[in-house]
Amino acid sequence: MSESKVLSVEDLHTSDAKWVKLKKTTWRDPDGKQRPWEFATRPTRASGGVDAVAILAILRSESGAFAPSTIIIEQFRPPVDRYVVELPAGLIGEGESAEETAIRELEEETGFKASNIIRTSPLLVCDPGMTNANMKLVTVDVPFPERLEMPAQKLEPGEYITARIVEISKLSAVFKEYEKKGFVIDARLSHFASGFEMAETLRQMQP
């Protein structure tokens, strides 16, 4: 299989766009002055008001056979013309909850089946200066009685996703390996790894 790459870029009229629309709004600042703003929207938003989920899967051994781990994915993202390392994610379907989407998308993209939901974040925005796209981060529990095994993915046609298991404590070191290969790291995944490291640093600083 050949490596993915962007072949051309051209302007797209918003009326011809399927997944993203460009809008112009006028807002009033604290001084009462009206100001224009341009931003992108998702026309696929369901009636529940949430666009998508990102999934943090906690892979854990019930017997202590392996360290707490998670699943990350690699896929080519044309807007940045790079391979990106990120959390499993997906759009929420009409009539579907964030938790239902998380369980479904995790199994499709990685093959793992979550046993239960650990927590669901409040509504989150990723780049509020550029888009009104929003999401929720759903953390799920994936326990194993003994050995950790990689299941088969259930990808749809046209999906090219590589799943990888990584120990949570080693995420930052793995990111450095990816950077050397020209990959970029999704901010949400990076923030999680940074938060984990900071929590460990603060724990060690306690008297």
From TrEMBL:
Keywords: Hydrolase. Pfam families: NUDIX (PF00293). Residues 48-189 form the Nudix hydrolase domain. PANTHER family: ADP-SUGAR PYROPHOSPHATASE, UDP/ADP-SUGAR PYROPHOSPHATASE. Coiled coil: none annotated. GO terms for biological process: nucleoside phosphate metabolic process; ribose phosphate metabolic process. One of its GO terms (cellular component) is nucleus. This is Nudix hydrolase domain-containing protein. It comes from Ganoderma sinense ZZ0214-1. SUPFAM superfamilies: Nudix (SSF55811). InterPro entries: Nudix_hydrolase, NUDIX_hydrolase-like_dom_sf, NUDIX_hydrolase_CS, NUDIX_hydrolase_dom. The keyword Manganese does not apply. Belongs to the Nudix hydrolase family. GO terms for molecular function: ADP-ribose diphosphatase activity.
